[in-house]
Amino acid sequence: MAQNLYGPGVRMGNWNEDVYLEEELMKDFLAKKDKGQLLIQRNRRLKENLLRPMQLSISEDGYIRYGDKVMLVNPDHPETEADLFLGGDLSLCMTPDEIKAHLSDELEVPCGLSAAQTKIPVGRNTFTVLCTAGEVTGQVLRYGQNFRLGIAGGFADRMANAKLLINHCHTNRGLVAHRHLFLSTYFGKEAEVAVHTYLDSHRVEKPKNHWMLVTGNPGKDSSTMLDLSKRPAEDTRVLEHVAEPEARNAPGAHACTRPM
User: Per the UniProt entry, what is one GO biological process (predicted)?
Assistant: First the structure.
């Protein structure tokens, strides 16, 4: 009668090759870990950068100046055209491609934009008002002047925490937060951002086209002016803010302002 001559300590098949393969995989893993090239390490660094707390500029006189750090916010408003929508103040955010975000620990540009339910200034929703030719940092931004919005970026010119209209230069269509259209982004469910002007029966832009350049709060109880019970300049006239075509995807954008 045939008997099993193999005990539990006997190796079969290409056992030597399997051992060497496991050793090579472990060496490769440790080498990538030492260099910070593991997927989880890259992922963590990118999130740390994009979600790093930021300090907004403080505007005590209501003016926006070149070099100021601001948030671009679509103020909360009742949505009557859809049953399901994102409520609250929505801030404009950089939204990297999810696949690229897993493959790199740096933000690749151009990348998409979205609107998120957050009033906390972090790396992905804090923009810097940058100079163009002829302007200097610290100069007050006035109507008709060009400027750039970069990511780390009298009465008539007081734009801080006042409602703005942001229009695409080539199409003259307004930047809009579609609160009823959801995006499954790298950071969760957020609202779609697009360029389309919505007018009411009086030919006036609807609240979904309204945005605010939000600054920091000079007090210590809250981080932004949105946290105050009453927003300064809330009852001021809506300003028009005209953006260059790359505003949809680029980290920096040309724009100019003028009264309506």
Answer: cilium assembly
Helices within 69-201 (DSSP H only): 98-103
Instruction: Spell out the residues 6+ positions from residue 27 whose beta carbon is closer than 8 angstroms to its own.
Output: none
Contact between 243 and 167 under an 8 Å Cβ cutoff? The reply is yes
Taking CA atoms, 142 is separated from 128, 166, 236, 244, in Å, by: 16, 15, 15, 17
Alpha carbon separation from 77 to 124, 130, 161, 252 (Å, rounded)? 23, 29, 16, 28
Model confidence pLDDT, tens digit, residues 243-253: 333 333 333 44
24: left (phi over 0), alpha (psi -120 to 50) or beta: alpha
Helix (H, G, I), strand (E, B) or coil at 116: strand
| pLDDT at res. 11 | 67
Give the dihedral sign, CA 195/196/202/207: negative
Handedness of CA 82, 88, 92, 95 (dihedral sign): negative
What's the mean pLDDT in 144-167? 67
Element (H, E) at 212: strand 210-214
- How far is Cα of residue 52 from the mean position of the Cα atoms in its chain? 12
- Cβ atoms of 92 and 193 closer than 8 Å: yes
The answer to whether 138 touches 66, Cβ cutoff 8 Å, is yes
